Here is the input.
Amino acid sequence: MNDQVIDPVGADADCPARGPSGEMRVALPSADAVTTLAEAREAIDGLDAALATLLEHRTAVAAVVQRLKPVGGFAGRDPERERRIVEAMAARAPSLGPERLAPIVNAIIEAGLDAAESGR
Here is the structure.
């Protein structure tokens, strides 16, 4: 498995996936290297844990955005910006493409807005 460093600003030093400088290390297993169901599930569990951590950080930063925007919440959504986010993600995940990523990004944005409105 290869590690890739993801460096979220303001990273939690207590998170077990964090390195000494605050970066988050994520194992990115090659699909070709996974040969058993147990290995596949372990790889997915690690990726899911990293996704959850990233989503938590994204939600916190998105809450700041909501406070800074003149019109926040669901009314302040910017469809053009959301389209650009989907396109940028599709460039990093070409096997998913924008058609599959759009509903995922929408769900992430809506969950973040809901968390910000409810104070988490």
